[in-house]
């Protein structure tokens, strides 16, 4: 039986380069070397193509992330602006509320101070003019004489603690001002107040007539009689 040997085909790559003097320079490359270079070129091409695809995917992901971050930043910016507006509104409300509280506190302080002032028995105990003298005997007392029609009035706010008979003047009314002071009104008229009644400043206690034109007025501090002139406002 006849055997035929198969020979592998071989090829040679010849590179011809012309020199400057016109001579030809030949470079031969056999098929094996060419195959190696072709394989290297193919592998390099594949690697470059894979890298290009990978870079494209990475760049796409980065772009998507940048877009998402931009959207997030825009949303946060909008929220921050909304919070800034809300904060400014709340700050204004707090300012208005603080001012209201301050004004209320000032009004309460003024009212409290006015209440304290009104409770002091400093007012003039008559609604009109009168002559005045100091009692010569006994506890300190001012004796006023006024014309009929004049009213005996409270010298400060307080509560009536007693309406009793008086040996010298007929009737005696004691008003407790709630601050350690009490004012005493002695007159021969009919008392127009009753025990336990709370009175404002300037409230009428007696009305003077022809037979009760005289008022004996006293002030006590911590259950001790004091000179009424230390508190009384003559011009009141």
Structure report:
- By secondary structure, the protein is α+β, with helices and mostly antiparallel strands.
- It has one helix and twelve strands.
Briefly say what this structure is.
With about 240 residues, the protein is α+β, with helices and mostly antiparallel strands. It has 1 helix and 12 strands; from the N terminus they run ββαββββββββββ.
Helix and strand topology:
Elements: E1 12-18, E2 24-30, H1 31-119, E3 131-134, E4 142-145, E5 151-153, E6 158-166, E7 170-176, E8 181-187, E9 198-199, E10 204-207, E11 214-221, E12 224-226
Antiparallel strand pairs: 1-2, 3-4, 4-11, 5-10, 6-7, 6-9, 7-8, 8-11, 11-12
Sheet/helix structural class: alpha+beta
CATH third-tier fold name of the largest domain: Glucose Permease (Domain IIA)
* Total beta strand runs: 12
Low-pLDDT segments: none
| Element-by-element helix/strand order | EEHEEEEEEEEEE
Question: Helical residue percent?
Answer: 25-40%
Mean pLDDT figure: 86
- Specify the oligomeric state: single chain
Tell me the CATH architecture of the largest domain.
Distorted Sandwich
Give me the Rg, rounded.
Answer: 58 Å
Number of domains: 2
Shape: rod-shaped
What are the key terms here?
Glucose Permease (Domain IIA); alpha+beta; 12 strands; two-stranded antiparallel ribbon; rod-shaped; 8-stranded antiparallel sheet; 28% strand
């Amino acid at each position: 039986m006849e055997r035929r040997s198969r020979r592998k085909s071989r090829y040679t790559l010849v590179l011809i380069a012309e020199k400057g003097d016109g001579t030809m320079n030949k470079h031969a490359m056999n098929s094996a070397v060419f195959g190696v270079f072709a394989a290297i070129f193919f592998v390099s091409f594949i690697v470059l193509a894979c890298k290009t695809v990978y870079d494209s995917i990475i760049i796409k992901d980065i772009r998507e992330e940048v877009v998402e971050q931009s959207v997030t930043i825009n949303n946060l910016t909008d929220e921050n602006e909304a919070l800034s507006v809300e904060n400014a509104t709340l700050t204004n409300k707090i300012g208005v509320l603080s001012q209201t509280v301050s004004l209320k506190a000032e009004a309460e302080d003024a009212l409290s101070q006015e209440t304290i002032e009104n409770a002091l028995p400093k007012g003039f105990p008559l609604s009109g003019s009168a002559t005045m003298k100091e009692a010569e005997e006994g506890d300190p007392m001012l004796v006023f004489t006024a014309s009929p029609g004049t009213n005996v009035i409270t010298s400060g706010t307080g509560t009536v603690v007693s309406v009793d008979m008086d040996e010298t003047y007929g009737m005696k009314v004691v008003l407790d001002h709630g601050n350690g002071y009490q004012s005493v009104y002695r007159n021969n008229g009919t008392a127009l107040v009753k025990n336990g009644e709370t009175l404002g400043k300037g409230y009428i206690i007696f009305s003077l007539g022809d037979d009760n034109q005289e008022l004996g007025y006293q002030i006590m501090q911590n259950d001790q009689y004091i000179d009424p002139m230390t508190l009384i406002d003559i011009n009141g």
